[in-house]
UniProtKB/TrEMBL annotation:
Main location class: membrane
Protein keywords: Membrane, Transmembrane, Transmembrane helix
Pfam families given in the database record: AA_permease_2, AA_permease_C
Membrane topology: Multi-pass membrane protein
Subcellular localization(s) per the UniProt record: Membrane
Protein name in UniProt: Cationic amino acid transporter C-terminal domain-containing protein
Family assignment from sequence similarity: Belongs to the amino acid-polyamine-organocation (APC) superfamily. Cationic amino acid transporter (CAT) (TC 2.A.3.3) family.
UniProt superkingdom: Eukaryota
Residues spanning the membrane: 59-81, 87-109, 130-154, 174-195, 202-223, 243-264, 276-302, 322-350, 371-390, 396-417, 429-451, 457-477, 489-508, 514-532
Gene3D superfamilies, sorted: Amino acid/polyamine transporter I
InterPro entries according to UniProt: AA/rel_permease1 (IPR002293), CAT_C (IPR029485)
PANTHER family per the UniProt record, alphabetical: CATIONIC AMINO ACID TRANSPORTER 7, CHLOROPLASTIC, INNER MEMBRANE TRANSPORTER YGJI-RELATED
Keyword Nucleus: no
Amino acid sequence: MGFATEFFGFPSGGAYVKQLKRAPLTWVERVFKVRTFQEQEDDRHEVGEMKRCLGAFDLICIGVGLMLGAGVFVTTGAVAANDAGPAVIISYLVAGFSACLSSLCYAEFSANMPLSGGAYSYISAVFGEFLAWITVANLILEYILANAAVIRGFSPYFAMLINKAPESLVTATANYTLDWFAFGWCLLLTVMLVLGTKESAMFNLVVTIVHIILVVFIIIAGLVKSKPSVNLQPFTPFGVRGIFNGAAIVFFSYIGFDAVATSAEEVKNPKRDLPLGILGALCVVTICYILMSLALVSMVPISALQEAGSFAAAFQYVGMDWARYIVALGAVLGIITGTLVGMFAVSRIIAAVARQHLLPPFLAKVHKRFGTPYISTALSGVATAVIALFTSFDELLNMVSISTLFAFWIVALALMWKRYYTPGSNGKNALMAGQLLLLVGAALTFTIVYWVMPDSYIGMIVAAAVFVLMAFTLFFTGRQGHRPSSYSVPLFPFVPALSVGLNTFLLGQLDRDAYIRFGIWTVAVTGVYMLYGSLASAQHDKKADRALPTNGSTLNDVPSLPYSAAAEEKGLVAHSKAMETAADATAAKP
């Protein structure tokens, strides 16, 4: 591969101009161009392989490290005071159930397609390149913004820990509040991630274990000071609607388990360890959230929570002012691990997209010594550091979450399409597509009625009935064209169907600004795809001599999808066996 091809994706400027001249034809050809598992595997081998060094316990710590951050220390009190009351405990349970549905879908995909692209790899293998690009481009932006938002929380909690005013740790200028602690931590964590995944995972493991010990202490101390007979009454002061409103807010505390899927190419035995890591991390975090919320609302009455909803204020209320240092330390550790894992995830996603030439391919290069995608890690880390230096936490927080929810929604939909789609059976596929559209339409109708006409229970009941009817129709009439060889979602299709419904509901909870940001960024990245990504990807496939759909074709016209039985037998099963053999060999070493 020449320098120009390696850096830009084209051997010369003339080759780019030639592709640009046939751009309209290329766009038509590639909108539904699916990338099979084998194609994505070939791309992985082309740029270098990452070191397989992670086990199930490492993955659980990665997931916990990202999810169990500082947000829970403040969000819980605010939701209890303004939305759910003591029933915030149920809100966390409902949100955890919703996250569990999405995690089960990710677990099936990750076990059967162990690739570092996460949602991008799954969507591109089912719905095609363009929709996968739109999803992943929004995810990349959201991860970078979220990482910057998380690390901006370091200075206030560190100031609490050392008895300083938060303003003393930042530099105020006429237009910006510069946070050099956030900037420095981003650069330090970036260097750590470049030097090796195992080393970063070990650091995350140690910090996460200490963090969990502090969380357990907070739970025990809170329960010791609890007065449930007084403070838990009334349990649902805002009614059932308050519980679900609270669930929609605290759900964002669960975002992060998808980062575990991006480590697939660095896992010793992905077929076994990825489902364990994803589901294990979610279970640990859910238990911690429920017990922490129980401790808080049992310790402090609602009237006190309305004045200051944080755990630090709650401990001060019950005469344990010293415990605020424990809270601050726990928050600081959660911020560090959350930023570390978030930066780890986004670098893997960028590398996966770049090796398929939707981004410049040099971003996918893997360091020969360290076994990490060092260029994508360095560039995304520096971008996070610069944003965190100049932008406040509140400004960043309003711009995140929509992309992750959209990815959860479309991955669940992709799982159902993948299971039911049968190449060549256009009539059956059209019927199944209609059923899925009705399923999504019913969920959307329920969400609109819930938010726009909150007293229209008949509308919600009808929409929910149509949703349930479509799910049962798929169960009884849908014929699965593919069954995974390893882990599979239980209670199919009800689990992914419920995931689609709940994520539709949660998407409806987001404000107008989130959708404006999503729309503007989507238009921008569509332009990037049309002028670069689709052309470079077509050039890459042409060099690899890969077949494309004919002009004007649709997804149903593609001769075969990656999930046909033949593809699974040749690719996925062989890969799983190879991973098991490698895992056994690793385990046999002294």
